[in-house]
Request: fold
Amino acid sequence: MECGGFIKGMGNDVTVLIRSVPLRNFDQDMVKRCIKNMESMGVNFISNYDSSSGSIVKDETTGKLKVTYLLSDKGEQVEEFDTVLVAIGRGADVELLNLKDAGVDLNKWNKIPTDAENRTNVSNIYAIGDVIENSPELTPVAIQEGTLLADRLYNNKTKKMNYDMIATTIFTP
Reply:
């Protein structure tokens, strides 16, 4: 959404393929308003994108990119574009931490379940930030989680992270 908005604002044609719910963790009324506004600017949104298959082939004659993609409701589609930007999200990078050998549980998305005090299933191992489940993937949230954890561990404080009413932003035109 962010990139599509500013690229369109610079005068370029933009098509956004959407796999599922756009901006899933945001207020869906505001998401719909953003999409409606961007569509009025000429941004093309295509829903039901199936990211399990597809290809991009450069036409050496024209320099265009021939993109083949799958829509779950319409089948295979082929379009030409000048540029393709892929923004498919990210996963928690915990592999090198060797958490399995430490006995720390991971969920199916490689996120670490924690209690309200950021304790994992192993009582002396804590986790904060993007790597834990049910925590917004926002740097200020991770900083606050770390500050509160340090205060609980080393300053005899008891305050826990409050995840209600965390401000978020959608950058669109």
